[in-house]
Amino acid sequence: MPPKKSKLCNRSKEARRKRLERAHQSEEQIAARNTTQRIRISESRIQKSKRQRDERLRQNISRNSAAREHHIATFRVRELDRQQTRLFSQTRCWIYSIEWQKRGLPHAYILIWLGVKIISAEIPDPLIDQELFDIVTSHMIHGPCGIFNMTSPCMENGKCEKRFPKQYTNDTVTDIDGYPLYRRRNFENGGHIFTMRMSNSTNQVEIDNQWVVPYSRLLSKTYKAHINVEFSIP
C-alpha cells in the first residue's frame, strides 16, 4: 500500500531541508577556507613587518634601553607597521587617538573605514575551525553576568551596562538608536553553544551567541587575544 500524501510531503520537506543544510555547511566551509588563506597571508605580512619594526626600533633607541621606555619612537614605528601591513586590504581612511592608562601604558582607539565585512558575533563551529573556536570561547565571551552572576562588575541597578545578553537575530541590522545588531543565531537556527565554568564558582553554564563580544576572525587568529571590533554608523 503506497504511503499517504502527507507522508510523501513530509519526506520531501525533510529532504529539501537536508539539502539546504548541506549547501549552507559548504558555504561556511568555503568561507572558512578563504579566511584561513587570508590569515596565512596576513600572518606572513605581520611577521615580516614585526622583524622590520624591531630593526627600526633598535636603530632609533639606545642600546641599553627597552622599547617601552621610548613611547614616541614606538608609536611612530607602529604607525608605519599599520600602514604597510594592510590586514584588511586597502582601507578607505582612518583616525585614531592615543591615551595613557594609569599604569603608564599607551592605549589606542582606532576607527577604520573598510569596504569588506570582517565582524562576527557568533561562536565558531569547532568542526570547521577548532582554533578560532578555542580563541573565541577563551577571550571573546562577556561575563556571563546577570542571572549567572549578579555581582559582576558590569552590573548596575540589576542590569548589565554593556547590554548583555544580546538578543537573537538571524541577520545583522541597525537598531532604531543607531547601534548595530549583529547576527546572533540561536541553537535552533544554526547557532552553536558550549559549556564553561563560572570564574566565581564551580558551576557549569551553557553559553551561546548572546554572550559573544564582536570580533574579527583575522585579528583573533593572528593575535590570539581579546580584540573587540565594532561597526560604527557614519
Automatic annotation (TrEMBL):
<feature type="compositionally biased region" description="Basic residues">
    <location>
        <begin position="1"/>
        <end position="21"/>
    </location>
</feature>
<feature type="region of interest" description="Disordered">
    <location>
        <begin position="1"/>
        <end position="36"/>
    </location>
</feature>
<protein>
    <submittedName>
        <fullName>Helitron_like_N domain-containing protein</fullName>
    </submittedName>
</protein>
